[in-house]
Fold:
Amino acid sequence: MPEGPEIRRAADRIELVLKDQIADKVQFGLAPLKKYAKPLTGSKVLKLETRGKALLTHFDSGYTIYSHNQLYGVWRVVKRDKLPKTNRQLRLAIHTQEHSALLYSASDISVWRTENIEEHPFLKRIGPDILNPHLGWRDVAERLQSKAFAGRALNSVYLDQTFLAGLGNYLRSEILFLAGVHPEQKARDLTRGQIGKLARTTLEVSQRSYALEGVTLPERQYTALKKKGVTYGKARFFVFGRASQPCRICGTKIKRTTANSRRIYTCGNCQQAPRQN
Ligand SMILES: [Zn+2]
Structure:
């Protein structure tokens, strides 16, 4: 499943051809949406916003198209009207003078007045997106300490889209490792310093993975490994997918376990388990 950084990069590729462009023609595959083709035609695309796995395409006519790919949806960007050969159902097409952005197979698509978009049931439920530029580490710290999340194990919180949208399995392992906290710990048992570090690490790792195309290592460290001939797959993470290999910080063997039915990787030395009372 794609996580926030991958989703944002996919959105960037679509935004590259749509942003500030006039939608010459807009087509919907689902019958109830066809009535929106007309009011959207001729309006300009302002931006594409990601909220977890939801994509919001904002138009200057005051409309926003909400789409969620779920498991099957797939976007394609092509030269105008050069539609690929496929058996997939075309559900949304936004044509500019030069390009066509096409959404196939997705069925979770709706059109909203932009001022009402926050009332979408999915958006109401999820937390802020981890790559939202307005999200600061203090906001993350506050959410960690809030009633909804403070008493739950971090391994569960760090997959929960109501905490922060866009979190996922590799980010969970990488963030908790770099913050030096054990996945079974709860925010309410952490010190102020640990909360601050965890909150800052959450944003840093997510932003770095976005900027470095899925790499969570600092750029210099990653580049040094690449120069030694280490592949992208083996050089990109601190712990995720590195079972039995030495911790990049202390050399201890990385452990793979399961939490919330998903694999998680930890260093038993860098991330001390909570003390049982
Ligand atoms: Zn370690």
The first strand starts at residue 25 and ends at 28. Residues 54 and 122 are 8 Å apart (CA to CA).
